[in-house]
Amino acid sequence: MADKEIVVTYGVLSERTEVEKRTGITPDIVTRLKRSGVACVVEQGVGLDAHFTDADFEKAGARVATRDEVIASSDVLGFVGRPSEDTLASIKPGTWVIGALQSFTDEAYVDSLKQRGLTSVAMERLPRQLSSAQSMDEMTSQNSVTGYKAVLKAADAYGSFFPMMTTAAGTIRPAKVLVLGAGIAGLQAIGTAKRLGAVVTAYDVRPAAKSEVESLGAKFLDLDVDLTKGQGDGGYARELTAEERAAQQAAVDRKAADFDVIITTAQVPGRKPPMLLTSAGVNGLKRGAVIVDCAASEFGGNVEGSVARQRVVTESGVTIIGDPDLASSVPVTASQQIARNLADTVVHFVREAAQEGAPAALTVDMNDEIDAAMVVAGGDK
């Protein structure tokens, strides 16, 4: 397929930190974007933690430059997370910014994007129910990686085997794993734990989740609590009422004592994660039990006592791992997926000009359902 005439320059900066190993672009995406008329310029070392070298990007057709050069020469900048205030200060007005901008919870940040004259696209606002939006769905791609890695992290911390083993010294029973939250991360966790040989049970407030859980060969946990209205917009769980949360927590606390490993993945987009397992439930677990809380963050987590980016061992010998960076710990696959999500989002906004003969350009169309949902600054907002 012949490359189109270049009409847009897409820049990606390095976001490498102690915990962030992903990159927002990969060499194969450079080639893909060129076919759509999008040239790429990347910061030196942008992909090293995901094992993509500068030479790999140059071979694919990208220009490798300094951070300042990338910012100055780009029409649109893509981010795994969101640009810092220092980075924003260096971006020229009129530039497009695409990333996970935390726009649901940080209005001041969105206001700063508007004040700087930046057209800003929030990945967390993608209307995922649209078939045309599937390849842009960053939440799905990264949560899938998170669910996979959560099980591996739990298996590493657990002091026995996941599968049943018959040895000369006797038979070792399989681990009993409970997954709380059966969204994308939870379903991937179920599948991974099953492949490792564990006996898996899962729970979610959404009625539709029961058939999904059972289709993977896991049992659905019966809490004996009526939460049949747990389905939210777009297939995601809605936020429960205070009464529903209390009933759910008490039931989960009781049931949790039967399990060796618990993985929690429940998040409500733009909200504080729901508390699924209280200290009473944690204290009821047997010594040696392991909990991985994928929702742990500065806003709290699904498990009382979990701390983001820390491993806590309770007095009763229960290990609680709070890890919001699990996707980053699988940097190659996570980068490949998020780079595709960001690139397809860029291509979505590259449209032919209304005036005949004029070149295509980045354009906001507020009559388009995706544009209207995702653009939080710029356009006519």
TrEMBL record:
<dbReference type="GO" id="GO:0005886">
    <property type="term" value="C:plasma membrane"/>
</dbReference>
<comment type="similarity">
    <text>Belongs to the AlaDH/PNT family.</text>
</comment>
<feature type="domain" description="Alanine dehydrogenase/pyridine nucleotide transhydrogenase N-terminal">
    <location>
        <begin position="11"/>
        <end position="146"/>
    </location>
</feature>
<dbReference type="GO" id="GO:0006740">
    <property type="term" value="P:NADPH regeneration"/>
</dbReference>
<dbReference type="GO" id="GO:0050661">
    <property type="term" value="F:NADP binding"/>
</dbReference>
<comment type="function">
    <text>The transhydrogenation between NADH and NADP is coupled to respiration and ATP hydrolysis and functions as a proton pump across the membrane.</text>
</comment>
<keyword id="KW-1278">Translocase</keyword>
<dbReference type="Pfam" id="PF01262">
    <property type="entry name" value="AlaDh_PNT_C"/>
</dbReference>
<feature type="domain" description="Alanine dehydrogenase/pyridine nucleotide transhydrogenase NAD(H)-binding">
    <location>
        <begin position="155"/>
        <end position="322"/>
    </location>
</feature>
<keyword id="KW-0520">NAD</keyword>
<protein>
    <recommendedName>
        <fullName>proton-translocating NAD(P)(+) transhydrogenase</fullName>
        <ecNumber>7.1.1.1</ecNumber>
    </recommendedName>
</protein>
<dbReference type="Pfam" id="PF05222">
    <property type="entry name" value="AlaDh_PNT_N"/>
</dbReference>
<keyword id="KW-0547">Nucleotide-binding</keyword>
<dbReference type="GO" id="GO:0016491">
    <property type="term" value="F:oxidoreductase activity"/>
</dbReference>
<dbReference type="GO" id="GO:0008750">
    <property type="term" value="F:proton-translocating NAD(P)+ transhydrogenase activity"/>
</dbReference>
<dbReference type="InterPro" id="IPR007886">
    <property type="entry name" value="AlaDH/PNT_N"/>
</dbReference>
<keyword id="KW-0521">NADP</keyword>
<dbReference type="InterPro" id="IPR007698">
    <property type="entry name" value="AlaDH/PNT_NAD(H)-bd"/>
</dbReference>
<dbReference type="InterPro" id="IPR036291">
    <property type="entry name" value="NAD(P)-bd_dom_sf"/>
</dbReference>
<dbReference type="InterPro" id="IPR008143">
    <property type="entry name" value="Ala_DH/PNT_CS2"/>
</dbReference>
